[in-house]
Amino acid sequence: MTDSSKNSTVNTLRHWYSFRLKLIFEGILIGLITGLVVVLFRIALERIEENTIGLNSFLEDRIWLYPVFFIGLILIGLLIGLIIKKEPMVRGSGIPQIEGLLLKKFDMSWWKVILGKIIGGILALGSGLSLGREGPSIQIGAAVGLGFSRVFRRIRIEESFLVSSGASAGLAAAFNAPLAGVMFALEEIHKRFSPLILLSAVPAAIAADIVSEKIFKIDPIFSFIDMEVLPLNNYIYLIILGCFLGIFGAVFNISLLKYKELYIGRKWIPAYVRPVIPLILAGVFIIFYPQVLGGGIGLIRSLTTNSFSLNIIIVLLLVKFGFTIISYGSGAPGGIFLPVLAIGALSGKLIISVIQQFSNIDPAYINNFIILAMAGYFAAVVKAPITGIVLLTEMSGSFQHFLPLSLVVFIAYVISGLMGTQPIYESLMERSLKNNEYRGFIGDQKVKVVIEIPIHIDSKIENKRIKEINWPDDCLLIGIKRAGHEHIPKGNTFIYPGDVLIIISNEDKANTVQDLLAEITGIDEIEVHYQYEFSIRRFFRKIKRIFRSGRKDQ
């Protein structure tokens, strides 16, 4: 069978309807591989971060080592910058890159990303930058899924699902939170709920969690158990907390985007030099203020176990906020997921400390405000409220706090939206597209792709006949999923909310078609599924050619 026939319309459609069961088994395998890689990455970071924090006491009696110490940080910053220059896709958390990859706006070398993210992440996070390991873990998992697809080259319309399953497994292994990993893939990466995403993401997340928790015996980074249930008469304080988190979350998003634009506007600062700036700052904090170093795991734990004065909390909050902006804005490999949770925890501590000045609220509920604020601030920044709720519910190990948790998250999410801010990862992806930061995707006209469009209530084409819609020239509507059944579309067929349109196009036209369909339908959550095919016969032919060429050389 020739390549053109393998990627023909008939072959593409046949495999589109037959790969569901494979997603489960492939998801398990990707989850196991991702879990292994992410856990080793996590262990290495924990060992290095412990030594970094201990540098404070080591340098106290060795002042003469300070110049050597800062020179070392500068060299590490230059090395991180060199890694970013060689492979720009390892910059930042990697989540905007994953979203761009799934939209086929970017292309990615999976093995370069895995190596660059691990090495760059260890250097950046191990040096104390205010970055988290969850973003790199998610991108590493996505790269594992992509590598699985590209290496084996089986019949693959489902590559985007394998990338998503790797991403969910990465978050599950980073936090020991499989449900949050699945929800993140649905809510943030794909921005829609799909049974096909669940088929691959759920087994992948569970498999990764098994590797982390059962095989390596790694405990969750947080374990908020035995919390008192907040009485209803204290819910008025939760409204105050949610409003503060919504406003402060919007300020974070605006500040981060402005700071990144500030970096780009300074052409005299080469991109590979930018990580040096936060690393020098990290050196200062290692000596004078080690509490703000790293993602903030130790800081959050200390907030739940120790008492701090109001002035100390304000200083910690402002320093952590600014250091996170500077660290992430430099492009160093690392995420904002964990620092955002730390800033949220500090915000909760601040609000409850102020409330205690004017009321006699029971001190037993202080940790409630810290934990609820973590989820609320995450929702305000990332705009993924369900993921925030599920993540903190898994960490608390109880549904007793579901009501106050949902209330704070909902208020913070709404207030942040009213201030006009967009989801931070989506904003970062759009900025990367605008500045042409990453290598674009180039399609093949011989390869067919399947495009899925879920019809929403507010869609521009709801309740219209198919013949009434001006469809793009380079696509064909081939099916409509409705109430669990698939219908053959005709000119007089109406399109209703809840329908899923199945459209086929050429790979090289997919980006253009996708943009046109988004404009016509008013829907941005469009899935494009790219086919790859693996042939055993073709594989052995390649092996034979390798051996033949080797004999000829001899």
Task: Describe the overall structure.
With 554 residues, the chain is mainly alpha-helical. It has 3 domains: 3-215, Clc chloride channel; 232-434, Orthogonal Bundle (Clc chloride channel), CATH 1.10.3080; 448-530, Alpha-Beta Plaits (2-Layer Sandwich). 63% of the residues lie in helices and 6% in strands. It is built from 21 helices and 7 strands. It has helices at residues 3-6, 9-16, 20-60, 66-86, 95-102, 110-126, 134-152, 159-175, 178-190, 195-215, 235-265, 276-288, 297-305, 310-329, 337-358, 366-382, 385-396, 402-418, 424-434, 510-521, 536-553; strands spanning 448-454, 464-465, 475-482, 485-487, 494-495, 500-506, 527-530. The protein has a 5-stranded antiparallel β-sheet with strand order 4-3-6-1-7, sandwiched between helices. Strands 2-5 form a two-stranded antiparallel ribbon. Strand 3 (475-482) and strand 4 form a beta hairpin. Helix 3 packs across helix 10 (195-215). The protein is globular and about 80 Å long. It starts with a helix and ends with a helix. The relative contact order is 0.13. Mean pLDDT is 85; it is low at 530-540.
Describe the global form.
globular
Q: Please tally the β strands and state the result.
A: 7
H/E series? HHHHHHHHHHHHHHHHHHHEEEEEEHEH
Strand order within the widest beta sheet: 4-3-6-1-7
Low-confidence stretches: 530-540
Strand content: 5-15%
The CATH class label of the largest domain is Mainly Alpha
What Rg do the Cα atoms give?
A: 25 Å
Biggest β-sheet, characterized? 5 strands, antiparallel
What is the CATH H-level superfamily of the largest domain?
Clc chloride channel
Helix content: 55-70%
